[in-house]
Write a structure and sequence with these properties.
Blueprint: H1 2-15, H2 21-60, E1 66-70, E2 76-77, H3 80-87, E3 92-107, E4 110-119, H4 123-126, E5 133-136, E6 143-146, H5 147-153, E7 163-169, E8 184-195, H6 200-203, E9 206-210, H7 211-217, E10 224-225, E11 227-232, H8 236-245, E12 250-254, H9 255-258, H10 260-298, H11 300-308, H12 313-349, H13 371-403
Parallel strand pairs: 4-9, 6-8
Antiparallel strand pairs: 1-11, 1-12, 2-10, 3-4, 3-7, 3-11, 5-8, 6-9, 7-8
Length: 406
């Protein structure tokens, strides 16, 4: 009952005409500040979500759903029988063995270091490599080069039978100082295509090649692999089953853990942006405190009337607290609506673009609305407003409430 009375009086104070118009102006500015800060929080968090989704989509064309890598060393043994057993695990749709290491690549008079990823015929089933081929095709027994790397070498799959030469040091044995060339393994492959992930870490680094050639180049046996790519959806139990199946000396990395450092950096940037914008909310909350202080001063006569009618100090305090919360909640709700509408408009129409005349991955800023961010924003804004207003209102009300006894 007392809560209902306090809320009713607070709502009346909020919308009633004040003797000093500046109080209305400050209250409106306070609500507008909360609204703008709340909308900014929703928009900024959605932009980070969009960037995160965009990068995941770019990585997803090259990276598998899961990558099995050794816990120690560079390689482990996984023969054809083991690969077939992996295909039988629940949730696994396709499996591809991989051998990866660094080599020197030469085409004509140009030579550059590169990472050679040897894959088998199932690689196209575990990744969407065909979607990022921009020239030629990806064929077994040949190689497909990243776009930046191809440009550095000056090689094009459109050239009649272009071939590149791979050099890698032998993994076993001693270097023959009298004839150092004998310490390197050499292989020649035809270039069948060029791919573009639109990420320099991929386009300027990787060459996809036949796994048999990669094993010969890096001196591995037919059962050695440096990783196994898996497409599908594995539960935690399924991942543990795979690790146990391979002797417990491997780890199963999902897409997040394959680029853990990058996604952690994105999370930190998102958190820091969230905290910085919360400072704006705190500033808006101080504006609310200012408007409440002026309102309490104006209503000091009303406080005396309420006290004479038997109203306790706690009831009077709740009246002004509720008024501050009404301003905060009203501003936060309007900000949420504004922020959500702007994000949805950007998703559909791409209103804010990157300009014209330049080559960009996307034409407009990527955004993705997550309702968990909306809820987090609303709760954070309300909690800050409540905490900021509670102590000052209680102190000021006590001053005027007890001042009537003197």
């Amino acid at each position: 009952m007392r809560t209902s009375v306090a809320f009713t009086v607070a709502r009346r104070y909020l919308f009633a005409k004040k003797s000093q118009n500046v109080i209305n102006i400050i209250s409106a500015i306070s609500a507008a500040g909360v609204m703008v800060a709340t909308a900014a929080l929703v928009i900024v968090l959605s932009v980070f979500n969009g960037l995160n989704g965009l990068v995941q989509g770019l990585f997803g064309s090259f990276d598998p759903d899961y990558l099995i890598v050794p816990k120690e060393g560079k390689s482990f043994v996984a023969d054809s029988v083991m690969i077939d057993r992996l295909r039988g695990v629940e949730g696994v749709r396709a499996v591809s063995a991989e051998v990866m290491d660094n080599a020197l690549v030469r085409y004509g008079k140009r030579q550059v270091p590169a990472t050679v990823l040897g894959v088998d015929g199932e690689y196209g089933e575990v990744t969407d490599i065909d979607s990022i081929i921009i020239e030629g095709t990806f064929r077994a027994g040949q190689c497909c080069i990243g776009a930046i790397l191809a440009d550095q070498l000056g090689v094009s799959s459109n050239v009649f039978v272009p071939t590149v030469t791979f050099y890698a040091p032998k993994r076993v044995g001693k270097v023959n100082m009298a004839n150092p060339e004998k310490s390197f393994v050499e292989h020649v492959l035809r270039v069948s295509g060029t791919f573009m992930v639109q990420q320099s870490d991929y386009d300027g680094k990787y060459i996809l090649a036949d796994i048999g050639m990669a094993r010969d180049l890096f001196c591995y046996t037919d059962s050695d692999v440096t990783s196994i790519a898996v497409r599908g959806r594995l539960s935690e139990d399924g991942q543990k089953e795979v690790e146990a199946m391979l002797g417990g000396g491997v780890r199963v990395l999902d897409k997040w853990h394959q680029h853990e450092s990058f996604f952690r950096m994105m999370q930190v940037e998102k958190l820091m942006s969230f905290l910085i914008l919360l400072f704006i909310v705190i500033i808006a909350a101080f504006n609310i405190i200012g408007s409440l202080s002026m309102l309490i001063f104006e209503k000091k006569e009303s406080i005396g009337v309420l006290r004479s009618m038997g109203a306790e100090r706690g009831l009077v305090t709740r009246i002004f607290l509720y008024e501050g919360w009404l301003v905060s909640v009203g501003g936060a709700l309007l900000g949420l609506v504004l922020g959500v509408l702007m994000v949805l408009a950007q998703e559909k129409w791409g209103i804010v673009g990157f300009g014209s005349g330049e080559d960009y991955i996307v034409s407009s800023y990527p955004v993705e609305l997550m309702w968990s961010d909306v809820v987090l924003t609303f709760v954070s804004v309300i909690v800050l407003a409540v905490v900021a207003a509670y102590y000052p209102v209680r102190v000021i009300v006590r001053k005027y409430y007890e001042g009537r006894d003197s």
